[in-house]
Design goal:
Layout lengths: L8 E4 L4 E5 L10 E5 L4 E4 L5 H15 L4 E5 L18 E5 H9 L2 H8 L3 H11 L14 E3 L2 E6 L2 E7 L9 E5 L4 E9 L11 H13 L4 E6 L5 H23 L4 H7 L14 H12 L8 H13 L5
Helix pairs in contact: 4-9, 5-6, 6-8, 7-8
Bound molecules: zinc ion (ZN).
The site of zinc ion (ZN) has 7 residues, from β12.
Length: 315
């Protein structure tokens, strides 16, 4: 399960590019990024609660004092990438159109509800999210929305936003800084953890991996896990292809969706953290193959993952 990340806090990944790395792995422990230009900075994502976000902003203050954060990009609409927005509300907050839709659907109130859900679902939610404090979070949504691609000038530094979703979520922005050959991927890349396909289709995520592999970049700042390289992108691609193939075979054989999630052997991917995300991923494949299958809400999705997690020793 969750392990300590050897390098946490602010890490320089280029001339003016920084990563903010979570202190440990696990659900909700997301990374962020900072691109510093002349007299202005761009922040990639805020964190899951106000305490974590304030701690990050304090640690970045020596850098942002001379280059204030004028722009914030939320890579997508999962709370661990935007619940801290109220602490940077003076900046222009930008996101892809699909991300805004996700934020409107699931905010801090829904997460608080999930953690008090009855039974196994609530127990699982408290176990993975219990360390976060959703109290006092006012949802501050992006004031600027884009479709496709958006180019920004951050104090003379070119920054490209590309929406590669819907894939992980309804909108997934990657942030490319060509001069430094750095790309902040949001949750299109999990390093050392299992990717979760909340939205799909899988084909879009595979295409996003191909786009990343084709970019002139050699430093990948993932949404979760340590700073990495294109190898992590290839690993994600391999996992997604494998799970899609395995789930499709079981769908075709008429196996019920949760039976398929229990039945699939993850092989070389079995050691990735949060392997219970397989339950969501298989459900997403089944929905692609049978669009009449109804979507699951938050408690439905976390309930399925809880079932899978508790079938493993140590839960
Ligand atoms: Zn995340």
């Amino acid at each position: 399960m969750a392990s300590v990340i050897p390098s946490a806090g602010r890490v320089e990944v280029g001339d003016g590019c920084h990563a903010w790395l979570a202190s440990r792995a696990g659900w909700g422990m997301s990374n962020a990024g900072l691109v510093v230009g002349r007299g202005a900075s761009l922040l990639v994502d805020t964190l899951y609660d106000l305490r974590l976000t304030a701690e990050m902003l304090d640690a970045l203050a020596p850098v942002t004092a001379a280059a204030p954060i004028e722009t914030v990009v939320n890579t997508h609409g999962n709370g661990d990438h935007w619940f801290g927005n109220q602490l940077v509300a003076q900046a222009e907050i930008v996101a892809a159109r699909g991300s805004l839709a996700d934020m409107r659907q699931v905010g801090p109130a829904e997460m608080r509800q999930l953690t008090v859900a009855p039974g196994l679902t609530g127990r699982f939610a408290r176990r993975i999210f219990g360390a976060f404090d959703y109290a006092g979070i006012e949802p501050v949504l992006p004031g600027r929305v884009f479709d496709g691609e958006l180019g920004l000038d951050v104090g003379g530094t070119e920054v490209r936003l590309i929406d590669v979703g819907p894939a992980h979520s309804a909108g997934d922005t990657i942030v490319h800084v060509p001069r430094d050959r750095v790309v902040y991927t949001g949750d299109i890349v999990f390093a050392g953890a299992t990717p979760v396909v909340w939205h799909g289709p899988f084909a879009n995520w595979l295409a996003a991996c191909d786009l990343l592999l084709g970019l002139d970049a050699d430093t990948i700042v993932p949404g979760h896990g340590p700073v990495t390289t294109k190898k992590a992108v290839r690993d994600i691609r391999d996992y997604l292809e494998y799970v899609h193939e395995q789930a499709t075979a079981r769908f075709t054989a008429g196996m019920p969706v949760m039976d398929a999630a229990h039945d699939i052997r993850l092989g070389r991917f079995a050691d990735l953290d949060e392997s219970e995300r397989l339950a969501v991923n298989v459900h997403t494949v089944y929905r692609e193959l049978d669009p009449s299958l109804p979507p699951l809400d938050g408690p439905g999705l976390f309930g399925r993952m809880a079932q899978l997690a508790c079938s493993h020793p140590g839960f």
